[in-house]
Amino acid sequence: MGHEVLRAAYERHLSRFFPARNRSRGYGEGAVTSSKSQHDTVSRALLRQRGFFRPGRGLQARVRRVASLRAEEAEAMWALFAASYDGARRSDFDRDLAEKHHVIVLKDAQRQVKGFSTLLAIEEAGQWCAVFSGDTIVAPGFWGQTALQRAFIWYLMAQRLKRGLPVFWFLITKGYRTYLLLTRYFPTHWPRHDAPTPAFEGALLDTLCRRKFGGTWDATSGLLRFTGDVVRLAEDLADVPTRLLKDEDVAFFLAKNPRWREGDELCCLAAADDLFVQKTTRTFL
User: Fold this and answer.
1) What's the mean per-residue pLDDT of the chain?
2) Domain count, the chain
3) Which carries the bigger pLDDT value, residue 98 or residue 51?
């Protein structure tokens, strides 16, 4: 059912923003020349429709190829990242960025970079695709907005349509806020407080972690344990509000990753499955 729900929603918005007589013309910033660019442009149009592109309000989200970033944009991304993490090194940041296929860039009304998330699609031919989120940060003044979530959701939906395979979000996180994105938008996710991780998903997560992180992966704890100079959340971003300590998902994350302040990362997997499509299309369309 998920593919049908998604395709119907996609075609509905495609026909709305690109009437048949206009599909050879440009819309917004670029011409529609392929199925891929239609996905990209529809994503931008949906974001604009929902209010994220109104002057002076919210953030603008764009899914960009890493190679398309201008030097000043990459510099602004680094400055934001360095201000958010203690122990951040420019060489590690540049290496993370270079290995990724795409990046979601968030800008404010003054066109200043206020957040980003790097993306890498890992595919096992004919079996599955896992979208790995690398460096991700949103400036504190913009927490609570959903521009990043909307852009990322449409990226996953595009992967479903493009590849025709089970698609997963492969996430590592040292902060409870990112873990909450997983629990709030993906009904099928692991690890979780109310159910054990199934065998297939556990094996897939183990495969991805071993392939990507080697010896830093501790399969018993489900954590990446780094040594030496470790990147940690800046002290002013690492506090957990008292009101959230009783939240079951937050409590689970804190118990599962007790050294999160020291930079340990919890490895997670979420399915962009039918339940994900149904939940997000109801929420965002």
Assistant:
1) 79
2) 1
3) 98
Q: What's 13's domain CATH number?
A: 3.40.630.30
Residue 55 pLDDT exceeds 60: no
Q: Are 254 and 260 in contact (CB under 8 A)?
A: yes
Q: Does this model's pTM top 0.85?
A: no
Q: Is residue 140 within 8 Å of 237, Cβ to Cβ?
A: yes
Give the integer Cα–Cα distance in Å for 37 and 95. 27
CA atoms within 13 A on the CB side of 85: 26
Summarize pLDDT for 58-93 with one digit per residue, the tens. Answer: 788 899 999 999 999 999 999 998 888 777 889 989
Q: Provide the domain limits for residue 236.
A: 2-284
Residue 51: CB atoms within 10 Å: 10
Q: What is the DSSP string of the chain?
A: -HHHHHHHHHHHHHHHHS-GGGTTSEETTEE--SHHHHHHHHHHHHHIIIIITSTTSS-EEEEEEGGG--HHHHHHHHHHHHHHEET--HHHHHHHHHH-SEEEEEE-TT--EEEEEEEEEEEETTTEEEEEEEEEEE-GGGTT--HHHHHHHHHHHHHHHHH-S-EEEEEEESSHHHHHHHHHH-SSEESBTTBPPPHHHHHHHHHHHHHHHGGGEETTTTEE---SS--EE-GGG----GGGTT-HHHHHHHHH-TTGGGT-EEEEEEE-SHHHHHHHHHHH-
As beta bridge partners, residue 117 has: 104, 136
Q: Check residue 250 and give left, alpha or beta (phi > 0: left; psi -120 to 50: alpha).
A: alpha
pLDDT band at 135 (very low <50, low <70, confident <90, very high): confident
